[in-house]
Amino acid sequence: MAISTKVYNDQAMSTLNRITGDIQGIQSRIATGRNILKTSDNPAVGAKISFTKDQKILLERYNVNIDRSMNRLLQAENAIGSSVQVLQRIHELSIQARNDTYNAGDRAAIAMEIKNLREQMLSLANTRDSNGQYIFAGYKVETKPFVQDQDGVIQHFGDRGVHTLQISDNQRISTSLDGADVFLRIPQEEGVVDVFSTIDAFIEQLDEGEMDDSHIDRIGGMMEHFSLQQTKLGSQMNRANLQREINDKRLLLMNEDISNLEDADLAKLVTDLQAKLVSRNAAQQAFVKIAQDNLFNYLR
Q1: In sequence order, which ranges of 98-135 are alpha helices (DSSP H)?
Q2: Which of the pair, 109 or 283, is modelled with greater confidence?
Q3: What CATH number should be reported for the domain whose range is 53-256?
Q4: In Å, what is the CA distance from 122 to each residue of 144, 153, 174?
């Protein structure tokens, strides 16, 4: 037999190096518990993992937006709910004031309480969120939207913008309401009125010791208007909660997909490792034996 050639040695070493590389790869997978260490290990699977992770990041961002929108919607809903309570109290007082047994002093006392309620309504219109931004100011979140001038008239410094946030691939959700629509554009039979001037007119009449039943109807209409705004906010919150459930289910499925693609089957890897070790040992022994045989043949 001819002595081993350089070609044979190179082929044998290449085989041993390949097997050793396979063993190291399997050992790394066992150590990390991951089946795919880099995209080149399996380009198709690696690409799918990368795409799924990108989608997961996007869904997590949508959920952050849902949390932010829910925070603002809840504070807006609390403000509107409190406004309904304020109007309910004013409505109760208006019914009391119509009582024929009440005199001018009694009505003046009622006017005093309604003045305090009106101040509370103004405070609610200027509600801020957890970041200190005005909920009913539109896009001018840093500007106080409802301000009383020297004559006691409420001026509006917000705008008509309504903030929205992306909560899914094809859905955006409002995070509040148009403050001007809520407090300044209340539909009535005689047209559109604002809550502050309507209350002011009622207070002025009570201070004069008089009571016009038309105020009762106006206040009742304002209560209906604010209750409708409360319903709108509740609808938005329901949408947000529903989309959060959908996003969470998708995230769960994505995590399972990533786990199935990435996580290593340790039992299979251990079996593969044992087989590779056996193959390497056999290759090493064969190489040594053939090399020795060639040397002895040459010496003879």
Answers
A1: 104-125
A2: 109
A3: 1.20.1330.10
A4: 11, 11, 23
Report d(CA 135, CA 72) in Å as an integer: 7
In this model, does residue 192 exceed pLDDT 70? yes
Mean pLDDT across the stretch 131-135? 93
Answering whether pTM is above 0.70, one says yes
Q: Where do the domains of the chain lie? A: 1-33+277-300, 53-256
Q: How far is CA 59 from the centre of its chain?
A: 9
DSSP-derived secondary structure for 159-225: -S---EEEEETTEEEESS--HHHHHT-EEETTEEE-HHHHHHHHHHHHHTT---THHHHHHHHHHHH
180: CB partners within 8 A, 6+ apart: 138, 156, 158, 160
**Lowest model confidence (mean pLDDT) among 28-37, 74-83, 89-98, 201-210:** 28-37
Weakest-pLDDT range from 54-58, 64-68, 281-285: 281-285
Distance CA 138, CA 202 (A): 29
Q: What is the largest CA-CA distance in the chain?
A: 138
Assess contact for 232 and 177: CB atoms under 8 A.
yes
* CA distance linking residue 214 with residue 198, whole number of Å: 11
Helix H or strand E encompassing 146: strand 146-148
